[in-house]
Amino acid sequence: EGFRDPAALNYRRYIALQHDREIYAEGVVDHYEALAADDTLEPGWIETLARIYAPARYLFHVLQITSLYLGQLAPSAYITNAAFFQAADELRALQWIAYRVKSLSGSHDIQLANSEATRRIWETDEAWQPAREVLERLLVAYDWGEAFTALNLVVKPVLDALFKEAFAELATDHGDGLTAALLSESRVDTTRNQAWHAALARYALGANSTNRAVIDAWIDVWRPRADRAVEGLAAALSDPDGVRERTAGSLAAFTARWSG
């Protein structure tokens, strides 16, 4: 009960904040669509979007569900609120992916917006299977402390870094400014959420020093799974070494904020 979300969000403040953010995102979309920028994208990049970007909405949906689980079982209303706002952020992220894929299907392959085709990639493409495994294991991590640690201290920071940092940079390199802008805009939510993740982890360590061994033990289980997810997805991208380096660096910087 002593924990407080650094952002001090309530429902009204969250709605007002995200309303303004959606107006900004819609403006970005209007700008790029007015330029007909999608018409100039290379076929190879479109294939990457179909294989890696489009199925990412399943990824963010799992992060959403797990965030809701954390909020439902949280030992304090202050944690519940932060987790539920995080779940709303994940919904926002996956909705923009769905919109982006639909808009791309109009100027490129219509299969980009085919849910059955995207689901087949999610379920069978070798690049996705390590990520799918860690995410599906996350759905059955029923212990609240383990679920918080796995989601917010390992899996989410790694996958957010992969898509909202590394993949966004690749999009820029391939002339896809709109995808890059939407992912980078979504990273604002990640930054806000990581503030409460780090604050809660520091609170737990400060309240009981034996919590460190418990948290470290969970991280030892989940970190290799998350690393395999990054490896699988990075291998399918044009700069796998850069993706691995950016993702590892982002996780290390975040971990330093709470681990002491």
From TrEMBL:
<dbReference type="InterPro" id="IPR009078">
    <property type="entry name" value="Ferritin-like_SF"/>
</dbReference>
<keyword id="KW-0503">Monooxygenase</keyword>
<dbReference type="InterPro" id="IPR012078">
    <property type="entry name" value="MP_mOase_hydro"/>
</dbReference>
<dbReference type="InterPro" id="IPR003430">
    <property type="entry name" value="Phenol_Hydrox"/>
</dbReference>
<dbReference type="InterPro" id="IPR012348">
    <property type="entry name" value="RNR-like"/>
</dbReference>
<dbReference type="Pfam" id="PF02332">
    <property type="entry name" value="Phenol_Hydrox"/>
</dbReference>
<keyword id="KW-0560">Oxidoreductase</keyword>
<protein>
    <recommendedName>
        <fullName>propane 2-monooxygenase</fullName>
        <ecNumber>1.14.13.227</ecNumber>
    </recommendedName>
</protein>
<dbReference type="GO" id="GO:0016709">
    <property type="term" value="F:oxidoreductase activity, acting on paired donors, with incorporation or reduction of molecular oxygen, NAD(P)H as one donor, and incorporation of one atom of oxygen"/>
</dbReference>
